[in-house]
Each structure stands twice: as structure tokens, then as C-alpha cells.
Specification:
Blueprint lengths: L18 H12 L3 H30 L11 H4 L13 H5 L17 H13 L4 H26 L5 H12 L4 H5 L4 H23 L4 H15 L6 H12 L4 H26 L20 H20 L21 H19 L6 H13 L22 H19 L8 H23 L3 H11 L4 H10 L3 H4 L5 H21 L4 H13 L3 H14 L4 H13 L3 H14 L4 H24 L4 H25 L4 H13 L3 H22 L1
């Protein structure tokens, strides 16, 4: 053995190291110092912070071109035409205790989503009739949601930055989300997702640290998600599913989480049942969901599975996008139809993969199961809902397929570079998909700029949709649209075109009550009273509880001096919608005419003058009560104020008459200023 010589100047005499000591020394030298570890952690945190910020900025930028958009579709009924929303912050207690559509001129009360509606009331208090504020808030909330999504994904994938970043980016720019972000009303979807992420974050932190303080936050977040949109009930399955895949949760953790979610769920269902139970709503209509019209149960469900295939296709190839896919945009698909078979096989294959890899806690399996869980109650497979197809319904489920794609891209690195696992290909592919999706999203946002553009664009994609024909016809005959036209000839042309579109809607689905009603109204405006009356009668045959049809038919009867019949229909209108301000005003107007008739009788019959004048006074006092009812429902409705002025003048109360004339003028002035 060779002898090692040491310098004679050495103070410390070295000894020969054993094998174990050499290994220990090597390990020690290989381990970074505490300072190095701290620096690495700090750098890692900076990278995560920057990645989260990038996700939020990208989400903001791809939707920033919606800031100047107007109202569209259901926006009208929920916000600018909703008498409850327009009362602003003061209406929030009533919003919390009434149905979602309360304040609209309809009798449908099947939804309870007070939280999103409350945000609209707050915005109205800040800046009335300002769609830009609603659009800006939608984008800001969406950017916050995407940022929070990234932070939650970091808890799910603690050893990877790429996977959470890729998932969050894909989700942030996905074109399927344009209907939700670009349509102010769809904030219910954004809030539901936002509060789901807060719920999931609290659950994951509780499962890791076991601190009970996370549970109250979890319960409150889940309750807020439910108050945003009812479909949040699926989170009862989604949250424990995520705990299984992305934590080492024990039985006690599961019990704590589930109890904390069960309590607000039961509370919400009880509140919802008590509020909705006060109303009787009509069943879902075939025009909204064509599956309802399919009597064969098997064909009904196979058609639903086929539409699931359409949904799946749009996740990966989001084109063309449509704002309506109801009757008859899609054909039914029977058991032997290839469209059903293909969709069924793909979904079964995905489900089999998820089940087989469940115990392995494969994140791809989680993404698939998350999709199935969150789409379950809106898929029409388990139960029929109010629509057969709507891209907004994919806002939450789409996260599942974003997870699948991002994990596959991450695994691609290992397949392409098994030795090092480092290759730019996944990052490049992610960037390409993000850029492609972003361009589609930016373009689709422009379609939502206003209803004229949206309807003209989407009608070309689904010309057989009865709803789309109705949307176009209703839009070009609406007062807001007609006032933009240059002259009476243009207005008449728009009404004629509207009638043509409504003709087509009715030819697609004959018992389309709203289309009959709108066509009748257009004919009435064009002074074609006989044809209008026929359409009103048919509209009320289809839906005898339609308050709008009763009110508009009452207007026709009033203008043709059939006051008793008009009175009956106005009474029916307020019966089916006690908050219908226009119907209350019209009801009052009938009594106003009755009063004038009695006064005329007094002038023509001097012997019974006092009796007729007393009758006139009684009729006018009744009218005053109904005019005030109209104001109670819609404080900024100028017409009943002015009519109150005339009525008080008839009663000889000039002071009260002038008071209401001034208030009518002030309201008209405020509306004119707001419009300018």
C-alpha cells in the first residue's frame, strides 16, 4: 500500500477516514448551506409570484377589449330593466329574500342567485345604467379568479411550477369563457368559481395543517358559491375528490371538511325552497331545451350524450362559438346515430381511464373526474334543465380538461427527454395554444360588443334556432334600437324586418308564446290592429299567465276604446306579476278614463250632477292608488308621475298636481343626462 506523506508544518494530524465517514463527508459537502436553501426558496417564491401575476395580467388583457361593450341578452332583464336592481344598494335585503328574476316583467321564478344580483345593485348605485362598469368588474373578478386558481394549483402540484402555470394560462385565455366574461349577467359563474377556489384552498390547507380556523372560511366560501349559482352544489363532490388526489388527508380531515360544507348546503337549500316555494312557475319549455320535446327516454338521453360530445369538441376546438344552441340548433341523436356513439365511446373511455388510475392518484384522472362531477347536473343526462346547450355552463367544468392537457404536456418532456426530462417542447406547445386561444377570444369578444353584431354573427351559425330568430326580431323592434334610427321610414322597415324574423321563429316552433306576443306588439305599433289582436289572442292561448302579453293586449283594447276588456287584461297582468309597473300605470289609466266619463255624464245630466261627480272622484282616487303602485315598483318611471299630476288637477288639487309634474320633469331630465 502506498504511504501518504503529510507536510511537517501541519498542526493537526489527519487520520485515515473510514468508508462511512467518507460517505457522510460527501453527503455533507453535497448539501447546500442554510443560506443557500433560503436563497433558493426565496427565488422559488419570486418565480411563483411572477407566474401568478402573469396569469392575472394575461386574463385581464385578453378581455380588456370588452370594457366599452353594451348590455346583451339576459343583461336587460337582470340589470337595466330590472326594477329591483335599479333601486341600488337599498334593494339588497329584498334581493336576498326574493327570486333571481324578481323585478322583471315575467312570471318565471325558478332561480335563486342573490349574491351576483346584489353586485349589480351596488354597481347601479355607483353608476346607473353603465354597462362599462359591469364589464370592467367582470374582467377584474376573472383576473382575480385566475390568479387564485394558480395559487390553489401550487398546493396541488407543489413540486412543479410548469403544470400550475400551464393550467392557469390555458384556463385564463380559453375562448369558451367569452360568454361568461363578455356578458355582465354571467357574473354568477365567475363568483361561483371564485368562491369554489377559496373553498378548495381552505380544505387543502386544513388537510395539511389540521388547523380548525380554516373550516369557518371554507363554510362561508362554499355558502357564497351557492348564493352565486345553484350548480355550486357539485362542489360537495369536487372538494373531497381534490383532497384525495392532492393531499394526505386523514378521515378526521374529510369529516371536518364535509361537515363544514354540509351545513351551508342544507341552509342554502332550505332558504331557496322557502323563497321559490312562494311562486308557481311553468315547466321548462321545449323552445329552451329541445330534449323536453323528445318523448322517447332513450333518444332523449342519447341526444344529451351527443351534446356532451359537442361540449367536449369545443374544449379543444372552440369554433364556432354561439350564444344560443336551443331548439332547433341541434338535431336529436338516437342510439344508432354515429354522433351519439362517438361521444359515448370517448366519454366512457375517459371515465374508464380515470377509474383505472384512481388509486394511483393520477392528476389526469382527477381532471376527467372533475369534469364529470361539475358538468353532471347541467348535462341533461341525469335530469333535464332549462337549456340543452349553453357554452357558459362549461366555465367551471373546462378546468378539468385544462388540467388534463397541462399534465400531458408536462409528461411530454419525460417522453422526449427521458434522461434529463428537460426540453422546451412542452413550453413551446403551451405558448402556441395560449396564443391561438387568445386570438380567438379577442375576436369573439368583439362579437359581444352589442346585440346587433352578436345576433347578426350568430344567426349565420345557427339559422334554425327559434331563439336566435326571436332575439333578432325582438332586438330590432326594441325602443332602444328604434330610437337610433334616422326617420319613421327606417323605423317602419325595422318593424317589418322584425315581423319577418318572428314569422320564421314561429314557423320553427309554432307554440312560441313570446314570439307571438312580440309580433302582435309590432303589428300594433304599425296600426295593424286586427292582425295584432289575433296574435295577442294566440299568445295568451299558449301562455295564459304571461303578464307582458296581457298588458300589451290591454293597451290595444284601451286604444280601441274597449275599456272594460282592457281593464280585465291589466288586472291579469298585475295578478301574474305584482311588480309590473307599466301594468299598474295602465290599470290606473283605465280608471282615469272612467272618471272622465263620469265627469262628462255630470255635465250632460245636471239633475244627477252630484252623483256623477262623486263617481268621478272615486274613480280618480282609485287611479291615484294604482299610479302610486306603479311608482312603488319603479321609482324612476316618469309616466305615472305625470298622470298623477293630471289626476290631481282633475280633483282640483293644483298643489299636488304641480308637485308630480315637477317630479316627472326631473326624472325625464335625469334620464336624458344619463343617456348623454
Amino acid at each position: 500500500m502506498r504511504a501518504y506523506c503529510f507536510p511537517t508544518c501541519s498542526i493537526r494530524v489527519s487520520k485515515k477516514l473510514t468508508r462511512k465517514e467518507k460517505i457522510a463527508q460527501q453527503q455533507q459537502s453535497a448539501q447546500p448551506s442554510k443560506r443557500q436553501q433560503a436563497a433558493e426558496l426565496q427565488q422559488q417564491q419570486r418565480s411563483r409570484n411572477w407566474a401568478g401575476l402573469i396569469v392575472a395580467i394575461v386574463a385581464f388583457l385578453v378581455y380588456a377589449n370588452t370594457f366599452q361593450h353594451g348590455w346583451a341578452l339576459d343583461d336587460w332583464g337582470v340589470i337595466p330593466d330590472n326594477k329591483l336592481t335599479k333601486r341600488g344598494i337599498s334593494a339588497i335585503p329584498e334581493i336576498m329574500s326574493t327570486t333571481y328574476r324578481t323585478g322583471m316583467d315575467v312570471s318565471d321564478h325558478t332561480l335563486y342567485r342573490p349574491l351576483s344580483k346584489a353586485t349589480f345593485a351596488i354597481e347601479w348605485s355607483i353608476s346607473p345604467d353603465n354597462p362599462s362598469l359591469g364589464h370592467i368588474d367582470n374582467v377584474l373578478l376573472y383576473a382575480l379568479t385566475c390568479f387564485l386558481l394558480f395559487r390553489v394549483l401550487l398546493l396541488c402540484f407543489p413540486r412543479s411550477l410548469f403544470i400550475p402555470f400551464a393550467i392557469a394560462l390555458l384556463y385564463a385565455v380559453h375562448p369558451l369563457h367569452t360568454e361568461v366574461i363578455a356578458n355582465v349577467k354571467s357574473r354568477d359563474e365567475i363568483l361561483s368559481m371564485l368562491f369554489f377556489l377559496l373553498t378548495l384552498r381552505s380544505a387543502l390547507l386544513y388537510a395539511r395543517g389540521g388547523k380548525w380556523q380554516h373550516l369557518p372560511i371554507l363554510a362561508l366560501s362554499f355558502f357564497a358559491a351557492l348564493l352565486s349559482k345553484e350548480s355550486a352544489i357539485t362542489y360537495l363532490a369536487a372538494v373531497p375528490l381534490a383532497l384525495y388526489f392532492f393531499s394526505e388527508a386523514k378521515g378526521s380531515h374529510y369529516r371536518g371538511v364535509m361537515v363544514s360544507m354540509a351545513v351551508p348546503a342544507v341552509l342554502f337549500l332550505l332558504i331557496r325552497a322557502s323563497i321559490l316555494g312562494q311562486y308557481q312557475s311553468a315547466p321548462y319549455a321545449m323552445v329552451d331545451n329541445h330534449l323536453i320535446g323528445i318523448k322517447d327516454f332513450v333518444t332523449q338521453r342519447t341526444s344529451a350524450i351527443y351534446l356532451l360530445g359537442v361540449y367536449l369538441y369545443k374544449h379543444f376546438i372552440p369554433h364556432p362559438l354561439i350564444c344560443d344552441g336551443s331548439y332547433a340548433a341541434f338535431d336529436p341523436a338516437g342510439p344508432g346515430d354515429w354522433k351519439f356513439i362517438l361521444s359515448f365511446l370517448i366519454h366512457i373511455g375517459a371515465l374508464v381511464y380515470a377509474i383505472m388510475n384512481f388509486k394511483k392518484r393520477d392528476p389526469i384522472a382527477f381532471g376527467i373526474l372533475f369534469y364529470f362531477v361539475t358538468i353532471s347536473i347541467i348535462s341533461n343526462v341525469l335530469m333535464l334543465i332549462g337549456t340543452n346547450y349553453a357554452e357558459r355552463l362549461l366555465f367551471v367544468p373546462s378546468l378539468g380538461w385544462c388540467i388534463v392537457v397541462a399534465v400531458l404536456l408536462d409528461r411530454l418532456a419525460g417522453w422526449l427527454s427521458p434522461q434529463s426530462g428537460t426540453t422546451p417542447v412542452p413550453l413551446v406547445l403551451t405558448a402556441l395554444v395560449v396564443l391561438g386561444f387568445s386570438s380567438l377570444t379577442l375576436a369573439r369578444n368583439q362579437d359581444w360588443h352589442d346585440e346587433t353584431r352578436l345576433f347578426n354573427t350568430d344567426l349565420k351559425k345557427v339559422p334554425r334556432s327559434a331563439h336566435m330568430r326571436f332575439y333578432v326580431g325582438n332586438h330590432i323592434s326594441a325602443e332602444d334600437y328604434l330610437t337610433t334610427l334616422p326617420d319613421s321610414a327606417a323605423i317602419k322597415a325595422a318593424l317589418v324586418e322584425s315581423i319577418a324574423q318572428l314569422d320564421t321563429a314561429i314557423s320553427i316552433w309554432e307554440p312560441y308564446g313570446d314570439a307571438w306576443q312580440r309580433r302582435a306588439y309590432n303589428k300594433y305599433v304599425l296600426n295593424n290592429y286586427p292582425a295584432a289582436e289575433q296574435d295577442f289572442v294566440r299568445a295568451l292561448e299558449i301562455n295564459p299567465t304571461n303578464p307582458v302579453a296581457h298588458n300589451n293586449y290591454g293597451n290595444l283594447l284601451f286604444n280601441t276604446r274597449r275599456y272594460d276588456l282592457a281593464l280585465q287584461h291589466f288586472e291579469q297582468a298585475v295578478k301574474y306579476n305584482p311588480r309590473y309597473s307599466h301594468a299598474w300605470n295602465n290599470l290606473a289609466s283605465v280608471y282615469g278614463v272612467y272618471g272622465e266619463g263620469a265627469r262628462e255624464q255630470a255635465m250632460n245630466n245636471p239633475a244627477e250632477r252630484d252623483r256623477y261627480l262623486a263617481d268621478a272622484r272615486q274613480k280618480w282616487e282609485t287611479a291615484i292608488g294604482f299610479f302610486k303602485k306603479a311608482i312603488e315598483q319603479e321609482a324612476d318611471y316618469a309616466v305615472p308621475y305625470r298622470m298623477l299630476g293630471f289626476t290631481y288637477r282633475n280633483l282640483g288639487d293644483e298643489a299636488m298636481a304641480n308637485k308630480y309634474f315637477r317630479e316627472a320633469d326631473e326624472i325625464a331630465k335625469k334620464k336624458a343626462n344619463a343617456k348623454n
